[in-house]
Amino acid sequence: MKRFIYITVSFMCLFFTANLTSISTDLYASEDVPIEDIEQFVDVFKRIKEQYVEDVDDQLLFKNAIQGMVSGLDPHSDFLSKDDFDELRIGTTGRFGGLGIEITTEDSYIKVITPIDDTPAIRAGIKAGDMIVKVGEKDLKDMPIGDAVKLMRGEPGTKIEITILRKDVKEPIVLDIVREIIISKGIKSKLFNNDVAYLRLSNFQTNSTNDLRAAYFQINKKAKGNLQGVIIDLRNNPGGVLGAAVGISDLFLQSGKIVETKGRSLNSALKYKATPQDITNGIPLIIMVNEGSASASEIVAGALQDNKRAKILGTKSYGKASVQTIQELSDGSALKLTTAKYYTPLGKDIHENGITPDIIVEATDEDLVQLPEPYNKDKQLYEAIKILSLEQISQTE
Predict the structure, then answer these.
(1) How many other C-beta atoms lie within 10 A of the C-beta of residue 42?
(2) Which amino acids are annotated catalytic?
């Protein structure tokens, strides 16, 4: 079962405060409460306390019961203890000692959603889809994701050994990695052929819309206003702030729906529409995605694809289209609960399906392409630039 806990800013994490109250006798008498199930729970609780081989703390039993109740709803809902909640808040600061990976759980182990740009993980060669099976001598099988995160985080400068399994590689891969302070990066930009703008976004932060706008105008100035195409690279971008996904989509649209969220509560049903701006004045646009592109990345790709504003290039995205809210409880713990799902402008539910690119280009580390280092092994980027160049020739003719 997959379970997300984001190391960077998580997708649409809304923080509320809920006051816990004791259950009254009137509540037990309500027809809405499953009396038989509650009696069964009390019976099991009592038998464990009386008969289990070791004495078990009451708080541990209640914590485990709550965790099971919430995690059984879907892969992304979770009950966070105070320590787990503190870890999540540390992660959302964007600055901590670690490896630089976004992770989930799958098949009882820790799965890498994506390595983060300019971190020890990316330099060590960790790839999206790798399964982390050991940290040092500790086996991660069936380990709660919060405990695995604690093992991998640590003081900057300290070394950690991890063992990974990789698809199509027979033997386990053992990597020695030195932890670093992980700081979320801004926008990377590059001008190709003097007229193609390349903008790389590694995650969606509060200021990402303004950062991307500024980076575009800066590179357009460098091209002396003669840009003929723009490439937005969202590969291995796990997502982030919903507002940034909406804002960035809006930068390239004149009109149309961007995304819609649907849930049972009134405040979970939202529609976001574009405002007439398109900072590029309609020049050709390519969005690059892969299996590490999730959440907010898929909102942008879906919005621009459905509105026929951009071509999507690469491989199918991850497929996470649910919204979690995090509600802090009175004792410092928290409830992370799926409250809505989001849909593309044409109503596509991409949850677990992902965004299918218009142009499929598989990644390869072996073939060299005619681009300057460090892009000379990036076949997907090479193909994107080539497509924009061909479109420019076609328009000239």
Answers:
(1) 10
(2) 295, 306, 320
